[in-house]
Design brief:
By secondary structure, the chain is an alpha+beta fold. It has helices at residues 19-33, 47-62, 72-75, 77-88, 98-109, 116-130, 202-218, 221-224, 270-281, 318-325, 331-346, 352-356; strands spanning 146-154, 162-169, 172-173, 180-187, 195-199, 228-229, 244-245, 284-285, 306-308, 312-315. The strands form two sheets. Strands 1, 2, 3, 4, 5 and 6 form a six-stranded antiparallel sheet that branches. Strands 7-10-9-8 form a four-stranded mixed sheet, with helices on one face. The structure holds zinc ion.
Amino acid sequence: MPKGGVTRAMPKTLPISDKYELLALYRALWEAKFNPHPTQRELQGSPFVANLINQVAAMLDAEGLAIPGETPAAAHPREWEIALTRACETTQWAEWDHDTKVSYARDLLAPVASAADHVERFIGLVDAQQKRPDEAPPSDDLLGDLLVVREYDLKVPGEPDDGVQVRIGVPHSVPSRVAYYCRFQVVGLSRNKVRAAYGVDALQALELAMQMAMAVVRSSAEARAGRLYFPGDSEPDLDTQSLRLIGYWRSDDEPEWPDPKDFVDQEWDERERDIVVSHLQDGRAVWAQCGLSPCRFCGKPNGSAELSDGVYIWPEGLAHYLVEHGVRLPQEFVDHVNAQCDALEQTRVDSTWWRRVTPREG
Ligand SMILES: [Zn+2]
């Protein structure tokens, strides 16, 4: 990694006029490094790209746009998995000395994890994986083998019927063995990205992938307009047995979501807001990855995981909109939060079990 400065004169410096350009550069480099289907594989472990993204991350940090960086498996399981897969595929790995492995691992992981213990753990996992040539690392295919497919008919007045497919992939273990993932994709609706859900075992990953996929279907403009039919049915599918999605906001990529500016209400009762904020922050992480989502107001990278309370599912950065930008969520959601809090307060506390518990012997 070049440290002592550039030895030959550069024509001129790169003009970056504001933080949005810096963020765009950061996301472009991120895409190059952590694309599961790279067309230029060498970029992912390139020391030059790693050095660049580290520098941009440091500049973002200086701008107050910090990127969470030091808990790789938990905060960035997707990137950790992609870097691991790439390292496991590296044929020369077994011949490298330790220092070479360290520097390659750092380059692959930048800017997600640079702490020495993370890098060492990463190397240990690749070493272990490489000793098991019979067990291939997770497929690099976008979706891999399909486990189940559900089909809908999409009926738009005045247009021929179209098909919508919910595709759930076969769950796989992450090479680290700390987690499983299950990829899924909804094809035929306005959102059709391949995404992944993570779980402690294959069943949980599958369960979450199915919930997430159905949340994408149910929350789609097409489903809300009553245009999704089970094949052969004459009534649209109104099943609501799924997680209800909240807190996705409009962007250039996804213009169909609401604009958070329409939800700003500085008069919102502070106490009520705080209750909703802590409810949002207390959600269970379902680890479904949708890439770094920048705040639509301030551009700050705003998380990539999703949280759920068993009824609703929301991006982990949603609380930020309430705290920093005065976004008020719909009353129906606020009522739901209050109802869950009330239910908890009114529950009888059974203390007998804890009284009987004895410490483990030995
Ligand atoms: Zn913000």
